[in-house]
């Protein structure tokens, strides 16, 4: 039984190419038609950004059926998500750690701005929202009783401040009306904020709906709302959000976290 399981896992997981770093780097940089396979749970979580970025990139990708206890030993850090890229030369790259994967895809899909300064700004906004995401997770992995207390702290101390700071910065940068944090095109910062807003508005503890809607709406957060609308309007992201797979992941997420 164990041998059969191992054999089936070997067939599911791409075998990462073993080569010097410069060889792998060249394969990644020169690939013109990569395909991807994502290994993650059937929920949003740390895989949501990777899925959204892959959708935005319009690339060929599929999800590997997850058999985590057996697959874990074959991953670099023993955690998910893991992304496999098969380059046009046939080289297979294994990418680990969610934030590193997101930056890698953002660079590949030209989502880091047009120069070093814009890239810095994109990273600033993205990191700020990532901090908010970490605080939001404190609501998710707790019992209903604890969740209410953590939710009050999150909405009062974290979400409110994030909205205020980002609205101010969007206005200062002159970006409040164009739907982008940096420049005039979608960047990683826009997508990260949109995904964060989607989660905050989707996973709401019972009795907290009014609180959330007061903090985060088109009137109280016009700049952020415009960013979200702009990202949602992108044809490839819009198609992804309407897809059956996205609906399945929505259901899986609510079921797993018991919202």
UniProtKB/TrEMBL annotation:
Residues 115-253 form the GST C-terminal domain. InterPro entries: Glutathione-S-Trfase_C-like, Glutathione-S-Trfase_C_sf, Glutathione_S-Trfase, Glutathione_S-Trfase_N, GST_C, GST_superfamily, Thioredoxin-like_sf. Residues 34-113 form the GST N-terminal domain. One of its GO terms (molecular function) is glutathione transferase activity. It holds the Pfam family GST_C_3. CDD domains: GST_N_Sigma_like. GO terms for biological process: glutathione metabolic process. PANTHER family: GLUTATHIONE S-TRANSFERASE (PTHR11571). This is Glutathione S-transferase. It comes from Entomortierella parvispora. The lineage of its organism: Eukaryota, Fungi, Fungi incertae sedis, Mucoromycota, Mortierellomycotina.
